[in-house]
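ARCHIVE CARD
Drawer: 12
Card no.: 0347
Subject: one protein chain, sequence and derived structure
Cross-reference: see card 0346
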Amino acid sequence: MNLPAMPVQGLRFRILAVLSRWFSVLLFGGLGQWSSSMAAEPGFSLPPDFVIQRVAGEPEIQFPMFACLDERGRLFVAESSGLDLYEELQKLTRKCRISVLEDRDDDGRFERAGVFADQLVFPMGLVWRDGKLYAADPPDLVTLEDIDGDGRADKRTAILSGFGHTDNGSLHGLTFGPDGWLYLTMGQPDGYKLKRADGSFLEGKSGSLLRSRPDGSEVEVVCRGFENLVEIEFLPAGEIIGTDNWFLWPTDGQRDALVHLVEGGLYPLKLRDEGTSFLVSGEPLPPLAIYPAVALSGIVRYRGAAFPTRWHDVLFTAQFNTRKVSAHRLARHGSTFRAQDEDFLTTDDPDFHPSDVLEDVDGSLLVVDTGAWYVHHCPTGRIRKAPARGAIYRVRFIDAGAIVKSRRNQLEEGRTARAKNPSHQSPMDPNALTSVVADTDAVARAAREAGRAKDRTAEMALTDLLTRPEPQVRLAAAEALAHCGSSNTIPALLAALTGDADQFLEHALIHALHRLAGAPALVAALDHSHPRVQRAALTLLDQPPHRTLTSEAVLQRLSADDESLRRTARKIFQQHADWADQAAPVVRELIVKRALTAPESDALRELILAFQANSAVQSLVATAATNSGLPPGRRVFVLETMAQTKVTPFPDAWVGSLAHSLRDSGSAVRLQAARTAGTRRIAALHETLVELIGQTNLAPELRLEALRATLRRRPKLTSSAFELLLTQVGTNAGPGARLAAAELLGRARWANPENDPARLVAMVSGDRLISPSTLLPLLVRSEGEGFHAAWNFVMQAIKDGWQPSQEELQTIRGRMPPGKQTELENVARELAQRAASQREQIDSYAQLLTGGNAEHGWKWFSEKAGCLACHRVSGQGGVLGPDLTKIGAIRSGRDLIESIVLPSATFAQGYETFSVTLRDGDELTGTRVRQPDEAFVLRDAGGAEHRFNADQVQATRRQAVSLMPEGLLSALTRGEVRDLLAYLQSLK
């Protein structure tokens, strides 16, 4: 390969320091070829005295995803096919490969590359151990061996099989722990079903951290509850830190996380899990640090000596979306950590997407740039004919004031150390467990090693550690006792629960009790004076292997003085359908309470939903909905909860309470009653709702909600309904109301298709907020002169930037008026030419990425462009589109332009557009809102949510067209576009 060196652009080096550095390097033979080129591209930024060099790239490798090293320093690189990851996984097409790269002359570049294994299914994880390459090859975990030494694997062995393969959350993140076990990560919804030696299966659907012996035996779950746990790293004391995406549903722009992974831990995305029984110790465990949608990927702890000491034990993570590698310094915080973050490697290149980072044997860092092939859910590179194919970079530190050890010596020392100690762990002090002078990391590590070895002789020493003042030592002792403790340890574990225990330590103590305590000991613990001990006993007695908890024990604690104990009791209570007779008094108490805390409101909702089929609870809900003595907010709350129920048929008492509420004097109560009636599709209330539509003295919001609820049964618009929608779709209404009205118009039918279209077209012509796609189903049903007006509107919208899908074009062609064939052909050619010139269009806008006024941009964003109708920023705005609070931190300027200019080119994950056909024939379009249960909730273009049970949905189809209208930027001047881009880039 002929790869130019690429030092950092923009580093603030003094001229003398630069000369001194390179003179030192050349004088002492430290870096040789590293000084041969000073090309400025591709424009990386690093801390002072660090340099970067491209050391591998195409054509030898393409689309590298993850990598690992063997003891000789050879680099194994898992490469993508560059095709559709989801389709390739689902069809198991076997178009990926693993290459092996070698630096034979020790100059830092990999000049030799060969295919080690091919015909693989997206190997998103790999690790080397004892002459074998362990690799993800869904649905299998395999070992690959080069028996004849020719550099190519000739033996493939599946050591585990049964991994799901539908999503990018399939098998990945392979690494060996200091205990010698193989650790691997899984995401949701792929899941796993792995056969064990006894013939049983270990299975689950939520993302997990798994581990097994190197031969695949004794596979077990370490922790779970993730959407996409990517990679893990071990700390000196044995703690595990992982990179996790979609830790939370995006809230105020926050989504991804660093997580402290503890045994038996359950994390928040999916509290209940299908499959093998798993401990629930309490509330889901929190993140170590939370970030925007940075797409955390590879992680490594720096162990080498080639960087200054301030970088020792620092965690480095590759962040795909932000185009950077971040450094994380962890500080103790109770039994867990807090992270102090800083940028380490950054670039503005929109095609640079780091997916992995690892430490080479010489102490330099290797950064894997996967390129721009992965465009699913990532608005980047969609219009490129050939995506950037990625590369591998090396980051080194150059000390200008010291003699630099030659790279060859560094490599030799590193290879020798790696051959002797593949896990990179420092030698363990055998006396650390009982030493009073050993540092806390050494004690904690010794405890964990004793636990993993199931060393029963260490039980007494580990029990003593539960009284140590350092919470991280107590955490390690509890984790270890879960493996090598006995019933003799139970009093000490209970005593530890009464002390100062944060959530991680409390979980570890409960996990140990789960392994060690029998039902009698836990029943006795219910009488303990400390609420945390009682809470642990409640939690464990309600789960396998016990399941002996009584309703009386829970009811006694529903009104406990300790809030956390009350919350635990309520959560357990609502999970027991067999306790329905005892539920009504609890629901009554909460319903009539004058003021509810947030946890109490959550408890009331969960209790109503849990016992919705109970007649006593139904009666309480019906009464509360019409009780004028309750605060209006409580009644709205109850009506809202009704809409979330699944009970069928809808109780007559509830129908009556809704009818009463639709005539209530309070506007909030009436509005929610209309929404609930529409959500549950209650035919008995249809005429009542129709009456509300025609009452012009009522608030437009209520009339729109009534129209939404009745439109399916009566799609033809009455005069009053049409006037209402025209008023709301007009420019004087707010963006949310206008979008809601447009969505309803798109689902409606004309009462007078000759005349009405012209008025609607006059109202929305030139309006960039309302996409022609929304109104098209209505407009194509126009007749006569009305259709000519609709036709002209559609043609003008295309000229103004609207890009109809092929399906929409076909719809237009099917209704084409006589004599318009030539015009339609011209439009089709114009669309084809526009598609070909999209890159030029984006390049034109890219010139506006600097120099804008962010304050002015907020005005164009919120008012003129109407973006706030669908997107939230810092808690303000709509929820139809992605939260943009941190968008400037996770997307390049060019990505932002592509997302605005070509909204249908790609969809942000979780905001795909679906068309849903119901069994009653109704069709709806919108984005799916994820739910903790099996309900299908669709949010339409107006922001309204429609809830269906699974048996109500006949078919779902992913749409090719986004709900976000095209041509938004054409409504702004170039100066306003510059300001808008400045504002979006400022959101960090």
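Annotation on reverse: The chain has 32 helices and 34 strands. The chain has a mean pLDDT of 85.
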